[in-house]
Design brief:
- This protein has about 350 residues and is of the alpha/beta class.
- About 50% of the residues lie in helices and about 15% in strands.
- The radius of gyration is 22 Å and the shape is globular.
- The protein starts with a helix and ends with a helix.
- The structure holds D-xylonic acid (TK8).
- D-xylonic acid binds near residues 119, 222 and 243.
Length: about 350
């Protein structure tokens, strides 16, 4: 239906342009926009109401994950919510790093070359060391605490820090607790990790943590991960159950270990240079839609996570790290926390710990 409307609009436009004589110059300009929309509709992008509103400003959302993931559904839902508030925008969602991986997309936002991305916080530490607080292992104990910390003053403060990097932080979405997969052997203790090549995000805290656990970590963009596992360049990786399941990592990894070693969020980012061109009213609509879709995102993600673990158990060898072994993992990374606290900022780490304690 959407395509039909678009096609009719284009045909109508073609007729107008054909009859338009000297008016063609203006028409040609508009024709470009219509052409772009057509390309997006034909391509991988999916959007909100898709009424092909002539003058609507296009907001592209770049995602690293595929279109099966709750993050994608949440981005589409954001577009729907925004369309209920205003006709000013048309949201297009690009998944699987078609536009760029987390780092590239974020840099495009800073330059004003892309409107929205929802990356993991972890690659952002390269320009905002404070964000490393979310990478410290074994800090957030459960999702309720994560919600309280992110929804409270601590979460707000972290979003405000993004402003200095030409980014507008609008909301926290969920990636979730990370768990290990590998193609080598079942992990019962840190000894089983010895020398294992584990892909980490591009983040020195994750690198140091896996080294402290005895593995041989290597940083890599998410976009390169599947091929690296397939070709055996890496033995393992860590991500939430939802991602492991929906990205089909079980096709190239046999072992799944419930390590729950860290809760890393996604952050809904808008390009500051583009934001500043919008009216306050438009900014309000976008910000409200991002916040509303976050609730949908949490709910969807938690449902998907439970389903993911159930189906992964059927196709992978699964075990959970618990009790004494869990303590062994925690002890092994204590020095990593100490080492990185100074770089993150002692104040930020203290505030984070206080917010966690207050939420329990
Ligand atoms: C997707 C990434 C991914 C993250 C990672 O763009 O890199 O492992 O967990 O979800 O943000």
């Amino acid at each position: 239906m959407k395509k039909l409307i678009l096609l009719l609009a284009l045909l109508g436009f073609g007729l107008l342009a054909a009859c338009g004589g000297n008016d063609d110059t203006t028409a040609a300009g508009e024709g470009e926009t219509a052409g772009d929309e057509d390309e997006a509709a034909e391509g991988e992008a999916d959007g909100g109401e898709g009424e092909a509103a002539g003058d609507a400003q296009i907001l592209r959302i770049s995602l690293g994950l595929n279109d099966q993931h709750p993050l994608y559904h949440s981005a589409v839902h954001f577009g729907e919510l925004l369309a209920e508030k205003t006709d000013d925008f048309k949201v297009e969602v690009y998944h699987s790093a078609q536009i760029g991986d987390d780092r590239v997309a974020t840099e495009m936002l800073q330059m004003g070359d892309l409107e929205i991305t929802i990356p993991s916080t972890s690659p952002l530490v390269n320009f905002l060391p404070e964000f490393g607080v979310f990478d410290l292992p074994f800090m957030i104990p459960n999702e309720e605490v994560a919600d309280a910390v992110l929804d409270g003053p601590f979460g707000d403060k972290m979003l405000e820090l993004l402003d200095s990097q030409d980014l507008v932080g609008l909301a926290w979405y969920e990636n979730g607790f990370r768990n290990l997969t590998n193609s080598e052997n079942q992990i019962y203790s840190t000894a089983d990790l010895n020398g294992m090549v584990v892909r980490t995000m591009e983040n020195s805290i994750h690198l140091d943590a896996w080294e402290a656990l005895g593995a041989n970590p290597t940083p890599m963009s998410f976009a390169e991960l599947f091929t690296a596992m397939q070709q055996g360049t890496v033995d393992g990786q860590e991500n939430p159950f939802t991602t492991i399941n929906l990205e089909g990592f079980h096709e190239v990894q046999d072992y799944l270990t419930g390590t729950n070693h860290v809760y890393t969020p996604f952050v809904f980012l808008f390009s500051k240079p583009i934001w500043e061109e919008l009216t306050e009213e438009q900014q309000g609509y976008i910000s409200e839609a991002a916040m509303e879709a976050r609730l949908f995102n949490r709910e969807e993600n938690r449902k998907a996570s439970d389903e993911a673990l159930e189906s992964l158990k059927e196709v992978m060898d699964y075990n959970a790290i618990e009790g004494e072994v869990f303590e062994e993992f925690q002890d092994a990374i204590q020095d990593v926390i100490t080492k990185h606290s100074a770089n993150i900022g002692e104040d930020i780490v203290d505030e984070f710990i206080e917010a966690i304690e207050a939420a329990q």
